[in-house]
From TrEMBL:
It comes from Mycobacterium numidiamassiliense. This is Sulfur carrier protein ThiS (Thiamine biosynthesis). InterPro entries: Beta-grasp_dom_sf (IPR012675), Mopterin_synth/thiamin_S_b (IPR016155), Thi_S (IPR010035), ThiS/MoaD-like (IPR003749). It comes from the Bacteria. PANTHER family: SULFUR CARRIER PROTEIN THIS (PTHR34472:SF1). The lineage of its organism: Bacteria, Bacillati, Actinomycetota, Actinomycetes, Mycobacteriales.
C-alpha cells in the first residue's frame, strides 16, 4: 500500500505499524513526533497499523545554538 511521509510517497506492507515505519526509514528512537492526518499520535499509539493513503508528518528535535 502507499502512504505519504513528509510529502514523500512510500510503499509499505499492510501490517506496517508507525513504529516499524520509523525504524525502517532510519528515524531515531528518541526526539521524534508523529502526526497522522491532522492529529499528533502519542508514542503509546505507535503500535497502530497504518492504512492505505495515510499521511504522516514526522519531525525530529534538533539541538543547537
Amino acid at each position: 500500500m502507499i502512504i505519504t511521509v513528509n510529502e514523500q510517497r512510500v510503499e509499505v506492507d499492510e501490517q506496517t505499524t508507525v513504529a516499524g515505519l520509523l525504524a525502517s526509514l532510519g528515524f531515531p528512537d528518541r526526539g521524534v513526533a508523529v502526526a497522522v492526518g491532522d492529529a499528533v499520535l502519542p508514542r503509546s499509539n505507535w503500535t497502530t497499523t497504518l492504512f492505505d493513503g495515510a499521511r504522516l508528518e514526522v519531525v525530529t528535535a534538533v539541538q543547537g545554538g
